[in-house]
Amino acid sequence: MKSLLFTCVLFLSFVFSAASQNTKNFDYLKDMSLQRSSSKISEFQNMIASYNIQNLAVFKSDKKTTYDVVFKETNCHVETTYDASGKIVSSFENYNNIKLPTQLTLEVIKAFPNWRILKSQQYIEYKHLTGPESTFVIKIKKDKKSKVLRFKQTNDDVNNYVSLN
Length: 165
Description:
This protein has 165 residues and is an alpha+beta fold. The protein has helices spanning 2-21, 26-33, 39-49, 102-111, and strands at residues 66-73, 76-83, 88-96, 116-127, 131-142, 145-153, 161-163. The longest helix is centred in the N-terminal third of the chain and has 20 residues, at 2-21. The radius of gyration is 18 Å and the shape is elongated.
């Protein structure tokens, strides 16, 4: 129990410390922390939230405009739109071969026994006014058969994932 409590406190302090670097994007970090994503994705999102658009060569403080910034890393591709104050307006995030949430992995294994997961992708579309929508695409294989499964993440505590197939 102490370990779990320490982990939760550590996680929250990490989220809040990243948010304090860029309070403009606290809503983005808060919304994304509710998504059941891997730690790699959370780290990447913290970097996006703390990015300072004022360092861009094209930045003009006197213009009311938006700035599109592309972040790329191995297995990660994120296109983020910031407003002139540095607040995230929207983002489209694509993560390849990420660790799937445990509950989703268990659902796939239960529904498809003796199949193995070959590939996974998570797409997160974020809009400031509506929050994130997360979709998982999972390729599974058994013998010479393969299937592509699609799941949408929900905010329901019981059914966290809805099949889109």
